[in-house]
Amino acid sequence: MPAEPAIPTAEGSLSIGSFADPLLVDPASSLLSAVVEAYREAAPDLVDPDVSALRAAADGSSARGSDAATPSTDLPSTSVLAAPVAFESVASGFREASRLAALADADALELLTLPDPQPNALLVGDDGGCVLVEAADESAPRWRRVGDDPTLRDRYEPIVADADPYRIDTPSRRRVYAAFADRCGAAAAADVVRLLDPGPALDSADPVGPRIRAYAVGARHGAHDRTLRRACEDAGLGSPSTFTRIKRRLIDAGLVETARVARPVGRPRERVVAVDPLAGPPIERVAAVLRESLED
Questions:
Q1: Residue ranges of the Transcriptional regulator TbsP N-terminal domain (predicted)?
Q2: Domain positions in the chain
């Protein structure tokens, strides 16, 4: 059973699961980040699994004949009613967004868009609720629990009922791994996940973004073009047409070639194959090779 996610407070910590049907209202980015971190600490293999955890989950799922995309969890399910800017701040990089997506996939967090700012951040449940006030020391954020009002949840139910879901465009690491393992094999899936873990945060402004990295890995493993594009689509990284454009860009840069593969029945298939300088370096160097070639 996972540990209990808790928010750090001046008094020690505040267990999210101590509230029945918890609802977090209008958290600042710092508070929402603390909640995501609390869940990550409680269940790291769910929120932020490494390659070995992803491989073990996939192997266990295969043995049971079930889907490995989202494991079962005993974590409290928290509704988060927040301004889009708070979600965007927490999900500013690929790794950070994938953590939030993992929690949403597992129904540990229900992400809802708050239409209007509230006077205070609140954590409420069916039987109680409190205001959360951030301490002044920004070097070690801690919150103070203020008050206890059992009517707060009822006040926010109409807003929750009418709130639009907040959509995360970034997939979880588990979804990426499962899609590539299914279509291209476990080795390719592991390399894709590793290449989405750069030293500095990988964000949407990176000229060598997640889509290019994923397709380049597929080429290094000699995947069939259609299979690779389907893997990228299943992973939630983009549409097949997006990866057709990426393939052309990599070909024009001299990083990828195509080879026709004859079949006994039907039209030949096309395999994408990485060539030097993309084919040779270890996976840790691939992003740098892509950047050097594509930015010339």
A1: 68-171
A2: 6-162, 173-293
